[in-house]
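Practice problem: predict the structure.
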Amino acid sequence: MLALAFVAYRYFSGFDFRFFEFSIGAILLFFTILLIQSSLFGASGGMVGSFAVSELRRMIGSVGVWIFNVMLFVLALVLIFEDRFTDIIKNCF
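Answer:
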């Protein structure tokens, strides 16, 4: 993955910190969706998500896994939309 980031930096002229934030946010959102899917559907939620959720559940419990999922989801949205979460909520209402 590091090599892919280097190639993107070297040959993609629009690569800046904002693009980096957006990319990390998108990857984090994808991983969060995998975790939430595995939390909801159990063993049929996928291999990656099931492994991560089972290990997290062993360490921090079921409620801790859900809090972790919500925190990752909010962090991914903030990275993607570049605003603070409170600003996003204020603009919605």
